[in-house]
Amino acid sequence: MKHRQTWSSQFTYILAVAGATVGFGCTWRFPYLTGLNGGGAYVLVFCIAMILIGIPMILVENAIGRRLRVNAVDAFGGQANGKNISKLWKIAGYMGLLGAFGIMAYYMVIGGWVLEYIYSIIFGDFNLSNGVISKELTIDFYEKNIVSNPFAITISTTIFVLINFFILKFGAVRGIENAAKILMPILFLLMIVMVLRNITLDGAMDGIKFYLTPDFSKITLKLFVDVLGQVFFALSLGFGVMITMSSYLKKDIDLIKTSVATGILNTVIAVVAGFMIFPSLFSFGLSPDSGPSLVFKSLPIVFSNMIFSNFFAVAFFSLLMIAALTTSLPIYEVLITSICEKTKISRNNSIALVLGGIFVFGNLPSLMATNILDDISIFGKNIFDAFDTISATIFFILTSLLCAIFVGWVLKDEAKAEVLLGTKFSLRVVNIWFFILNLLYLF
């Protein structure tokens, strides 16, 4: 088999994984779901779910990925306990690829939205420094420039796809690793700046109370479903990212440490992201439950109330763009690696095939979902929302469940042996992990 690249160190792998998981899941999806589900109750359940479900599932996919060090489909092959593994298990890998396609179909379009906002603010088409702007004005801009302007969003989405293209050409590991080394520190710095600015606003404490004080009457079945979907979305579980990225890990890397570090880091960043949004919303009397358009319709009003309003607005949307980029690269890589290793297509051609195919069959329909194709409905949702619902609520969870069963029922001792490589943790710790897995898929 062709020599496979490896991450330069455990730290760079964790940084790259953090980039893969700290995307719109943390900075866009988590805040708006928190607002829709009543604030503190959602945050509390999310943190518990990340520890009890998220971290064990990261370890599941890390074990699957590093075991054979191949693509996300063939990782479900080989032998276990002296027997050949049924080829039917590769269905789980293909489901992961479908999930990856589903999320990238609309994910890149949101990246296009963000670029459109950055461009419009910098060049004065959406000037926030002219005094306090109204909610009607922000909604009008959103409707005209995002919802009803497929031409502009096509251009900005194309630019975002091309940025991914040029980074991916550097290689499966080196491109993502080098991007993470540069982009993640910038992302952390921008987050700190935005949080400090928001928590020092007048009335910010009301937003912090909403965000951190749980109202247990808000804990419903819908909240649990939203939390579960968010955990898998935020950790890039169920669509081959962890399997693919861990396939480039050396055998002496501690999988338990990397899984715990990834889960904790993602949880912390998701919670911190809320401090960029809710204090300012309450400070200026805005509703926190406006849904997916929260950061696009409501936050510009907040920025217009600030000193150096355009600066903070550009900083925030730049943060979103960086977060989106560090996540899109590894998701693309899931599909690129699979095509490269399962066909004779070169890497460069695979990159063009994946990015071009998703653009035509995913990005274009998604950006037209609210205008040209607004009469098309899938399960009662437009194309954009259908991609999100089908991938995040169905494919991610089902694929993750299959991964857990694959490790617990098929690999068994092979999985335990893989996890024990390079770790100082005992077999007892690994057995506790297995016990948690049994509870998860029996539940």
Estimate the helix proportion, in percent: over 70%
Query: Number of DSSP helices?
Result: 19
Shape: globular
Distance between the termini: 40 Å
Which class in CATH terms? Answer: Mainly Alpha
Rg from Cα: 21 Å
* Overall tally of domains: 1
Mind explaining what this structure looks like?
This protein is mainly α. It has 19 helices and two strands. β1 (79-80) and β2 (83-84) form a beta hairpin.
How would you briefly describe this protein structure?
By secondary structure, the protein is mainly α. It has 19 helices and two strands.
Question: What is this structure's SSE topology?
Answer:
Elements: H1 10-21, H2 24-36, H3 40-68, E1 79-80, E2 83-84, H4 90-122, H5 135-147, H6 150-168, H7 174-199, H8 204-212, H9 221-234, H10 241-246, H11 255-275, H12 278-283, H13 294-297, H14 299-304, H15 309-342, H16 347-367, H17 383-411, H18 413-420, H19 427-442
Helix pairs in contact: 1-7, 1-11, 1-15, 2-9, 2-11, 3-8, 3-9, 3-11, 3-17, 3-18, 3-19, 4-6, 4-15, 4-16, 4-17, 6-15, 6-16, 7-15, 9-17, 15-16, 17-19
Features:
443 residues, 19 helices, 1% strand, two-stranded antiparallel ribbon, Hydantoin permease, mainly alpha, 2 strands
